[in-house]
Each structure stands twice: as C-alpha cells, then as structure tokens.
Write a structure and sequence with these properties.
The protein is mainly alpha-helical. It has helices at 3-22, 25-37, 41-54, 59-71, 75-88, 93-105, 109-122, 127-142.
Length: 147
C-alpha cells in the first residue's frame, strides 16, 4: 500500500470511528453522498456500510448502499441491499427503482419490470421515468435495437 493510500485509509477510519461513536447514521449517509459526488466511490461505499451497521433499520442507508454497489457494478450485492431497504420500508420507491436497475444489468427483465411497476404504484410522480424504463425493457425483450 502506498503512503498516500495508507494516509487516506487512516483518515477514513478515523472519520468513520468518530461518526460511529456519535451513532449518527444520517451524518454517515450525507458524508457518503458527498464522497460519491466527489468521485470517491470506495469511501462512499464504506460510509454507507457504516451507516447500515450504525442503524440497521435505516431504509435510506440500505438504498444508498445499493446505489453505491450499482456504481461498482456489484449487482447481486446491490439487489440484496435494495431488498433490505424494502424490508425496512415497503414504500421505498427509490429502492424498488434501484433494484430494477440492478436486475436490468443482469438482463432479468421480468423482475426489473415487476420492481418498476411497484415503484410506480408507490409513487405515481415517478411514472414518466418508470414508463421510459419499461419501454426500454419492452424493446430489449422484443429484440428491437435500442440506442
């Protein structure tokens, strides 16, 4: 491990330790989101994992964890995170959408469609975007070239 990576790891561990000691999952989630926006996916992922450990009942923490896992293309683990988010809050439309995207990456169109339909049922304001994704699935299933 290089000195810069070791220093970054130490700073991250200290930051995680301080936040965990405060028991602040919300702060961990916010910091994780900031790390993702800054392009530091691994740090964001670590913070979301810490947030789920700090508050295992946080649907938002699991939703954000699933999103970070999607970015890392860890689709199977992302699906599990989204499922956990949904178990914590069955009305978490964002978790259903995230899970649908993970299923799309695995070409499991039936489960992707079912997840999207549930998201639309929960939050009709997302209908337009959900319908776009469903149309994409329809094109993929029919073999029509999608650009």
């Amino acid at each position: 491990m290089t000195k810069s990576k070791a220093a970054l790891s130490l700073v991250l561990c200290l930051a995680l330790g301080i936040a965990a000691a405060a028991g602040d999952a919300t702060g961990l989630i916010q910091e994780g989101e900031a790390r993702l926006k800054a392009g530091d996916i691994d740090a964001g992922l670590a913070l979301f994992r810490q947030a789920t450990a700090t508050n295992p009942g946080s649907s938002l923490a699991y939703t954000r964890l699933g999103g970070a896992l999607l970015i890392k293309q860890e689709n199977v683990e992302a699906i599990e995170a989204f499922r956990t988010a949904i178990m914590q809050d069955g009305n978490n439309a964002d978790a259903f959408i995230g899970m649908a995207i993970a299923y799309l990456h695995g070409a499991d169109y039936a489960l992707a469609r079912a997840s999207l339909e549930e998201a639309k049922r929960i939050d009709p304001s997302k209908s337009a975007k959900v319908d776009e994704l469903i149309a994409y699935i329809d094109q993929r299933e029919s073999g029509v070239s999608v650009h």
